Amino acid sequence: MIIRPFTGEFRHNIIQKAIIAITILGSIWTIFSPTYFEYLVAMILLLYLAYYFMQSVFTVGIFLALFYQWVQVSIKAIYGAFTGSSLESLTKYPEHISSAFFLSALSLLLLSMGIRQIIKKLEFSWDDLNFYINQYSVHKFFLLYLAFNFISGFLFTLRFTIPGLFQAIAILSYFKWSLFIILFILVHKKQKLLVPFWILVAIEFSTSFISFFASFRSIIIYLLIGYLSLRYISSRRLTLIGIYGFMIYLVAIIWTDIKMDYRQFLNQGQQTQAILVSKEEARNYLKDAILSYNFSGAKETREELINRMSYIDFFSATQDYIPSEKDHENGKVLKQSVMHILMPRMFFPDKPIVEDSKHLTKYTGIYFPSYAKGVSFSLGYTGDFYIDFGPVLMFPAILLFGLLIGIVLLSIHSTSPNVLWSFGALTAAFDILYKFENSQIKFLGNLIWFWIIFMILNKFIIPHIDHYLKE
């Protein structure tokens, strides 16, 4: 039985009011800043995202994904406004950095408008959502989550064995977060298995660091999505979210400062992404690094974090190179992205591997090391649309791309067995939407694979296990 049912009182007006208050106070504080106008544009864009994507429990994950992109676009403008720094002083590629910001902000606006135009048709009933929450067994869903974790872990070891399996298995792993968010809602709405659930979260969080690319961020994000989805946000809860955000900031600062040394320890100085030490050794090294950490160099680390989070710099470098040194491609990049999807590696094993660094080097004229050095740098989908269509025609293309994303999400919702499964699937879409740095070819490819995998799950898998999960 549901202890705390959902009601129609979901719209988080207080978040919008908080953004408006920050915008007004910030506009007074930063009025003489060289990035004052950029700050206002960034905050207005954030208000738009919050207003249209925080109206439904189904779009909380989409909001946080677009918010993450907003941070990647706006973080230097915000930082510059409050420190009195110009955008040009915060980048290695200053000549077109202001243009890169405005083009990126407008691109994100149009992408979100396209998504919103379609998913506003998404219909559900609060009574239906409560009904299906009441139908499912928390214990059975808990076991399903554990079982899928084991299965997906096994499949992940096979991802390189058969050509074409990698992307399908990677996208299938997103289903884990679909199950996680449903389990989160069931546990907290029914007030059952709270202690085992949070023990599981603690275990997953601690073990997530024992990998080359620590995946703790996913757990933090999906916990935040779950919390925001549970109930109406009051002033008190907004304060708690602020505290949670500050804790995330501290984790980000510490991780930014220690991760290169940690990765050097994991691969023992080899230029690979392989882990060459035991889990116990990795755990002990990480524990010692965290416990001995001090914040004496926090300012430098903060600036490094901002540089890593920001993703308009390479776009600035691209504008410096195109069209002055190389002409716009007139759709060639988009055509390559589409052909890459239409030629599955399973049937075309010789299909070229997507190397973001080589693509970035080609369209900036600047050398960037790639997979051979154990790293990768990408331009991002906005830069790719600019390369193809220029600073004007790129915008209709990005709007159409947003419409396509909306169509994919709406079709997954429409074919889901019920609203609870739909909620899980749309929340898992966070993983395909949150990266502003995603190249067009990867963004489009992941989107199509996400649609294929979740349509298969909705049509052929979930209906066969659904009745076993009910009370």
Report the total helices. Answer: 20
The CA-CA distance between the termini, in Å, is 10 Å
Determine the mean pLDDT.
Answer: 85
Radius of gyration based on Cα positions: 22 Å
How does the helix and strand content classify structurally?
Answer: mainly alpha
User: What is the overall shape?
Assistant: globular
> Which regions contain 5 or more consecutive residues with pLDDT less than 50?
none
Strand % is under 5%
The helix fraction, in percent, is 55-70%
The major sheet is characterized as: none
Protein name: Oligosaccharide repeat unit polymerase
Keywords: Membrane, Transmembrane, Transmembrane helix
Structural description of this entry:
There is one protein chain. By secondary structure, this protein is mostly helical. Helix content is 69%, strand content 0%. It has 20 helices and no strands. Helix 2 (36-53) runs parallel beside helix 4, helix 4 (97-119) crosses helix 14 (313-321) and helix 14 (313-321) crosses helix 17. It is globular. The mean pLDDT is 85.
